[in-house]
Amino acid sequence: MLISDIIQSLEKFAPLAYQETYDNCGLLVGNSTLPCTGVICTLDVTSAVVEEAKQKNCNLIVAHHPIIFGGIRKIVGNNEVEKTLISAIKNDIAIYACHTNLDNIFYGVNHQIAERLGLNNRKILQPKANILSKLFVFVPKSSVDKVRNALFNAGAGTIANYSECSFNTSGEGTFMGNEFSNPTIGKQFIRETVDEVKIEVIFPSYLQYHIIEQMKLAHPYEEVAYDIVPLSNQNQQVGSGMLGELETEMSETEFLQLLSHQFCLKSIKHTKLLNKPIKKVAFCGGAGSFLIKNAIAAKADIYISSDIKYHEFFDAEDKIVVADMCHWESEQFTIELLIEIIRAKTPTFAVLKSEVNTNPVSYFTV
Ligand SMILES: [Zn+2]
């Protein structure tokens, strides 16, 4: 088992292409070609976590939050981040971050929250646009199945819960090769007319190189005729925040009690209760004040997130209850998710949950 094998499972589940532009996901420290001795999963990387990894003989730390974020100009040990990085490098411990790419996928951070709250009819609250493309490829009839299968196997043709989606139209293709050509069908300098099928498939744009490569391998022609068109459609499976519904509605205080119980909360900051039942719940793990307006537009009864500032609470405008459950608490189950993703591929491999409590916030209760 190499470190790169673990990284591959993580990136298949949460593609790096889905991270936000400001983010810094991926391998941040270490050499992915080395054998992996064990993995430790955490929300944050601190020197205590590196020490724990060393003690438990794990040379890979998989974290939600990237320890290198927003640039670093020197590594001389002047602060906790620099000290942690020096300690990781000295001990040959690799650090990998799976952050907003894990936030933005359907079965990511928010799915964990939805599970704990028992929500149905889940949808991405703010789906991303401009991350899908469409491929049109012209194939002689005898090779249609082979090319279509290659496209599906390479990741094309998936729309939400449906895979192997394509549209196929029959027609006639014409071509004539010059003196340098080597046509599969027909001869040089003679116009050939062939019964062809135009296959149309949608695909995530980040897979373009791989899909075109596989398409060409399966296609019998020397020169494959194809078009790629970027789509402005939203990808309903990728984006920020989530929306879900409770099986049966409950009062606001009952819901806050449920939230508090399921996430072991010491406090919840919230806007004025509106004395309306809660049925539709919008939420976003981590800092999610940017989605308050989306939650209102989606007619959610409550919006749960964290790191909501004083002035942002005003955005509720008595249209919704906005509740802040604190950052670490909202993402705590992400650690289990990281473990699940890695174990799914390597069930017997040592994948541990860090025992270090990295939450920098404590609560004073009277
Ligand atoms: Zn976070």
How is this fold's topology laid out?
Elements: H1 3-13, E1 26-29, E2 39-42, H2 47-55, E3 60-63, H3 80-90, E4 94-97, H4 100-104, H5 109-117, E5 119-129, E6 132-140, H6 144-153, E7 167-175, E8 192-204, H7 208-218, E9 226-231, E10 234-250, H8 252-262, E11 269-270, E12 278-287, H9 292-297, E13 302-306, H10 310-313, E14 321-324, H11 327-331, H12 334-345, E15 351-353
Helix pairs in contact: 1-12, 2-3, 6-7
Describe this structure in words.
With about 375 residues, this protein is an alpha/beta fold. The protein folds into 3 domains: about 5-100 and about 335-355, Udp-n-acetylmuramoylalanyl-d-glutamate--2,6- Diaminopimelate Ligase, Chain: A, domain 1; about 105-125 and about 240-330, 3-Layer(aba) Sandwich (Udp-n-acetylmuramoylalanyl-d-glutamate--2,6- Diaminopimelate Ligase, Chain: A, domain 1), CATH 3.40.1390; about 130-230, 2-Layer Sandwich (Alpha-Beta Plaits). The protein has 12 helices and 15 strands. It has helices at about 5-15, 45-55, 80-90, 100-105, 110-115, 145-155, 210-220, 250-260, 290-295, 310-315, 325-330, 335-345, and strands spanning about 25-30, 40, 60-65, 95, 120-130, 130-140, 165-175, 190-205, 225-230, 235-250, 270, 280-285, 300-305, 320-325, 350-355. The strands form 3 sheets. It has a 6-stranded mixed sheet. The radius of gyration is 25 Å and the shape is globular. It starts with a helix and ends in a 13-residue tail after the last strand. The relative contact order is 0.16. The mean pLDDT is about 95. The chain binds zinc ion (ZN). Zinc ion binds next to helix 11.
